[in-house]
Amino acid sequence: MAVKIRIRKVPGLWTVRSGGAVLGETSNALELSEGDLPPVIYFPREDIAMAFLDRTDKVTHCPHKGDANYYSIVNKSSVAENAVWTYENPPEALAEIKDHLAFYTSDSVKVEQI
Question: Which residues form the signal peptide (predicted)?
């Protein structure tokens, strides 16, 4: 049985913060829902302060979305290893998430609608 993936633009203003720093704000966030997994918010790359992100060597593969590349978040107070992922070459059916970043939330990384 195929996993159903749905992408939709979500209303409102969204922010991502880490270690007290605002990494980005957008009114162009996308929500990706995949099967029974919790929805994930994707931020356009141009709305993220990329200076806080360091590309890592980590790559994972999803049979539906393709290869994910990872970034660590580096700020004054902490480093969140491999806390950000992106699908740089998703399949055509999921092309909307190209050039978008998603964040693993934790005590130090918050994604919120404001």
Answer: none
Work out the pLDDT band at 2, boundaries 50, 70, 90: low
Q: What's 56's domain CATH number? A: 2.170.150.40
Domain range for residue 71? 5-113
Closest CA to 21 of 104, 77, 70: 77
| H-helix or E-strand spanning residue 103 | strand 100-103
C-beta separation of 19 from 72 below 8 A = no
Q: What is the pTM of this model?
A: 0.94
For 102, residues 6+ apart whose C-beta sits below 8 A from its C-beta are 32, 40, 41, 42, 43, 84, 85, 86
The arithmetic mean of pLDDT across residues 62-68, rounded, is 94
Looking at the 3D structure of the chain, how many domains does it have?
A: 1
Is the pLDDT reported for residue 1 higher than 60? Answer: no
